[in-house]
Task: structure prediction
Amino acid sequence: KSANGISTIGERSFISQFPGHISAKVLDAPNSKSVHMWDYHGQDHQLWFWDDESIRSKKYPDKVLDLHMRDYLNYKWGKIHLGEYNGGDNQKWDFGNGRLVSSYKALNMDIEGGSF
Result:
């Protein structure tokens, strides 16, 4: 793991720790559907890369980070999971004010009860 959370393997750069992230944990995809925060160990399911405006897992490159819109519509917050790419705003991300921000309603990625 590099000091800034970015590793280069071949021609691609992988992110393990996103800017603005203040936890010792990293985003981890334990399977092809879900994500959570976990201690860093550097396996492929903790490495992420940009694909245009979407973020993909090195372990599951056919999936993208996806904000669960139904959760947001029902509860005004939404879980983030891995989903099949459909081009929706809930699958597009950017950095704003040092935070990972969804294109869907400009929602910040955050940890329930904490700060990402």
Q: What stands out?
A: The mean pLDDT is 80. The CA atoms of residues 2 and 16 lie 9 Å apart. Residues 69-75 form the longest helix (7 residues). The beta strands are 6-9, 12-15, 25-28, 36-39, 48-51, 54-57, 63-67, 80-84, 93-96, 99-102.
